[in-house]
Amino acid sequence: MEYRRVGNSGLKISRIALGGWTTFGGSVTDEALARAIIEKAIEGGVNFFDQADIYAKGQSELLMGKILKDQKRDNLVISSKCYWPMSSDPNDRGLSRKHIMQSLHGSLKRLGTDYLDIYFCHRYDLETPLEETVNAMTDLVRSGKILYWGTSEWTGEQIAAAVSLAKENGLVAPIVEQPHYSLAFRQRVEQEIIPSTTAHGLGLVVWSPLGMGVLTGKFDNGAVEGSRLTETQIGRELYTPEIIEKVRQLKPIADELGISRTALALGWVLRTNAVSSAIVGATKPEQLEESLKAQDLVLEAGVLEKLDSIFAI
């Protein structure tokens, strides 16, 4: 496994990360199965585990945390996020100092750890002054409760504003952005986010690099009605006849290389050093094993040109 620096920081994370969204605490609730998946990840060299309080309303953190406690904490990079409402309380949402502090304490308790390596602001909060958010994250870094902080699904302008505010006021700037990025969802990241993160020294850890499974080819012949793919806005944007046809065109390319479309799609995301890590999910060890095959994959220029011609911006 290759370990990449997160932006200009000294932190190094595995190229493939394991995330808890929609799986742990959701589609995966059996502890034995969750343990098998996490142990497969660690055997494969994964050191980065990504969480959020909103995932299964805290159950994802609880399940993953229970298993990770059996590992040496110093060898792990554990992240979580705050922003989304966790209850009906008016202060239990957003990026106010109050919510950030309360959310972190809840995540630490559920994950069974004294600190987080990275703490993400899960969206930008239009109702809270940016200065309040950056000050709160700075205080958490200086207290040792988090080591670094990052943003998720912020615009390039918002990221730049946070970095500038931090540098101008002696505060701690974010080191990483977590955007949605894949072959099937690339325009925003390549045209807006990467220019901003590169200019300001942030890394990228991307979510849904397999397009919610669409890019693996498992939906070539249709999706199950009522699944998260057909019931979520993101899924509906990715599961279209046009994209499915493009995914079918990936098969002969992958076959010629002797790899799966899963590995091909992940290899494409990791082709650029702007991306520090790709976060994948898994409902069984075999799925993760397939994703891990992309860790050493290097795609030649001719292959990249073919992929760009199929999924042109």
Reconstruct the topology from this structure.
Layout: E1 3-5, E2 12-14, E3 16-19, H1 31-43, E4 48-50, H2 59-68, E5 77-82, H3 97-111, E6 116-121, H4 130-143, E7 146-152, H5 156-168, E8 176-178, H6 187-200, E9 203-207, H7 228-231, H8 233-238, H9 241-257, H10 261-269, E10 275-280, H11 285-292, H12 301-310
Parallel strand pairs: 3-4, 3-10, 4-5, 5-6, 6-7, 7-8, 8-9, 9-10
Antiparallel strand pairs: 1-2
Based on the model shown, name its key terms:
alpha/beta; two-stranded antiparallel ribbon; 42% helix; TIM Barrel
The CATH architecture term is: Alpha-Beta Barrel
> Can you give the helix content as a percent range?
40-55%
Main β-sheet description: 8 strands, parallel, barrel
Q: Report the structural category.
A: alpha/beta
Number of strands: 10
Kindly provide the radius of gyration, computed on alpha-carbon positions and rounded to a whole number of angstroms. 19 Å
Can you tell me the residue ranges where pLDDT is under 50 for at least 5 consecutive residues?
A: none
Shape: globular
Query: β content, as a range?
Result: 5-15%
Identify the CATH homologous superfamily: NADP-dependent oxidoreductase domain
The whole-number mean of residue pLDDT values reads 95
> Per CATH, what is the topology?
TIM Barrel
Number of discrete helical segments: 12
Sequence of secondary-structure elements: EEEHEHEHEHEHEHEHHHHEHH
Which CATH first-tier class would you pick? Answer: Alpha Beta
Strand order within the widest sheet? 3-4-5-6-7-8-9-10
Q: Separation of termini?
A: 30 Å
Domain count, please report it. 1
